[in-house]
Specification:
Helix content is about 60%, strand content about 15%. By secondary structure, it is an alpha+beta fold. The relative contact order is 0.15.
């Protein structure tokens, strides 16, 4: 399955007093890497978000942006430090006795003393909030994956076209390779006759031996067979259901190896020109493969 490594997705969900907006952006990377930007008080959700991404994404650097807004006023709670207020009251009574003055407990004055009353926001239920955030992340993933799929299909069509070009050039190289040995044999015969004279008798056994040595040296049959195998595997991978980036990267390296060997072994100008053409297409394929998951 040819998925692009570049993509964008956005998801939004509201619930339990909060609105979550999640954006996903990705670029090429050899492995999976996620950078998650989320408010500090919800950092506990970071690993859950990472696991959601890893279930759907194999490769790429993913930037995750989580924005949170309150959709309703938070409940605020007043807390009383009972021990502290009792201590204040006891201390004031003791002070009144020491000063020989009257003292009556006044709850309103006591509550105005430092740190007796504190106002706190109601504690968030993280599990309920995760339900809403999970919904936003999942929605963002749907759009994100769809975009990567569409881009990947475009890349796959281009790659299949270039593989077909290479396959056609390979057939032309195979055709030229069939003429190399007969042409060499004829050139060698003409050279011998030129050196020894037209009426000289060519040692056919010696000639056949030289031609056999040449044929073995310039034979590119094995390389052409392996190149065709790599082309077939690349096409099969692009039409399959698994991520193809790493496999295609390996196959391109192997195809480059075979075409370089063909270029070094084949003693033929036409084949050399076609080798350059194949290498040019392989370089374009290699660049495109870097964009695939």
């Amino acid at each position: 399955m040819a998925n692009s490594m570049t993509g964008f997705g956005r998801g939004e969900a509201s619930g339990h007093g909060y609105n979550f907006t999640v954006e996903l952006k990705s670029v090429n990377h050899r492995f999976f890497e996620a950078s998650i930007r989320i408010p500090r008080n919800m950092m506990s959700f970071e690993e859950r978000i990472r696991k959601l991404l890893q279930q759907k994404i194999q490769r790429g650097r993913i930037d995750v942006f989580v924005n949170i807004k309150e959709t309703e006023e938070k409940k605020r709670l007043v807390k009383v430090d009972k021990d502290l207020v009792l201590s204040y009251d006891k201390t004031l009574k003791e002070l009144a006795l020491t000063l020989k003055t009257s003292y009556e407990t006044d709850i309103y004055r006591l509550t105005s003393l430092p740190e007796v009353l504190t106002v706190e926001d109601e504690e968030m239920d993280l599990e309920l909030l995760w339900e809403t955030l999970n919904e936003a992340v999942s929605e963002a993933l749907v759009g994100f994956i769809e975009m990567r799929k569409i881009e990947g299909e475009k890349l796959a069509r281009d790659l299949l076209n270039r593989l077909n070009i290479i396959s056609n050039v390979k057939e032309q190289i195979a055709g030229f390779s069939e003429t190399m040995v007969p042409e060499y044999q004829e050139r060698l015969r003409e050279r011998i006759q030129l050196l020894l004279g037209e009426n000289s008798v060519v040692d056919e056994a010696r000639l056949a031996n030289e031609v056999a040595i040449f044929a073995d040296r310039v034979s590119i049959t094995e390389e052409l067979v392996r190149l065709q195998s790599h082309l077939d595997q690349a096409r099969q991978a692009l039409r399959g259901t698994d991520p193809v980036g790493r496999k295609l990267d390996f196959l391109v390296q192997e195809m480059n190896r075979e075409i370089n060997t063909i270029g070094s072994k084949a003693n033929n100008l036409s084949i050399a020109q076609h080798v350059v053409e194949v290498k040019s297409e392989l370089e374009k394929i290699r660049e495109q493969v870097q964009n695939l998951e």
